């Protein structure tokens, strides 16, 4: 476990969503630990190693040494790791490798383009925005429909499936709802505000049954207002995932700022297991 002082240090130094205890514990149910300047989460026979050191000294050799020492100490069956760069010594044994980039939106000089503001204004005439701490059956139904239609990558799908557990757990999370004139849920965003420096876009989706054009743009705009209200320097927009998502983030001024690599290490006695399968219940 981490102490209160350690948690405050983590939140002060955090620069990726995986650092945030509220977010990761709410999603994974793992126990957080601080190993040097690396944050890890442990439960049962698995371990998640966040290979972005809080001191930002991202030399691959430090990552490799600390990861190996941590595995030796806790002896997990499954170890999942994320890092900006994976050294060859780890890659030789890693399975289920993925690569991507994190995106961010700076708040300091962020001005919304006139074309986007016209879209936002038009959407706001048809939608009402509310800020909530509830993830209800209405959100669950919308999420089910969205996942069936969109078929996102497994790790993204599983993240959506954990919102019923995560939102009530994390007191620094908020749900932004866009409702149509009949008060029906048209779209939502989940935002995490636990890190000192940034707001985190966690997930978001829209309804095809109660579809309103540009609901996602309106929610994105409201997210920027929320980030400014809480004095965040930037919004962490997560991974690029696919061209459509990257294009949307870039349209709003988001840009890639940090490399992302992930993988899995499995002890010799067990077969591979997708790390997101460790993340608890399903919808």
How would the blueprint of this fold be written?
Layout: H1 4-13, H2 21-28, E1 31-35, E2 38-43, E3 46-50, H3 60-74, E4 78-83, H4 88-91, E5 95-106, H5 114-126, E6 128-132, H6 137-150, H7 154-161, H8 163-169, E7 173-179, E8 185-192, E9 198-206, H9 215-229, E10 234-239, H10 243-251, E11 255-266
Parallel strand pairs: 3-4, 9-10
Antiparallel strand pairs: 1-2, 2-3, 4-11, 5-10, 5-11, 6-7, 7-8, 8-9
Give the C-level CATH assignment of the largest domain: Alpha Beta
Give, in order, the helices and strands. HHEEEHEHEHEHHHEEEHEHE
Described by strand count, sense and barrel closure, the largest sheet is: 11 strands, mixed
Structural category is alpha+beta
Give the low-pLDDT segments: 275-283
Model description:
The protein is of the alpha+beta class. The protein has two domains: 4-99 and 261-278, 3-Layer(aba) Sandwich (Aminopeptidase), CATH 3.40.630; 105-257, Aminopeptidase. It has helices spanning 4-13, 21-28, 60-74, 88-91, 114-126, 137-150, 154-161, 163-169, 215-229, 243-251, and strands at 31-35, 38-43, 46-50, 78-83, 95-106, 128-132, 173-179, 185-192, 198-206, 234-239, 255-266. It has an eleven-stranded mixed beta sheet with strand order 1-2-3-4-11-5-10-9-8-7-6, sandwiched between helices. It is globular. Mean pLDDT is 93; it is low at 275-283.
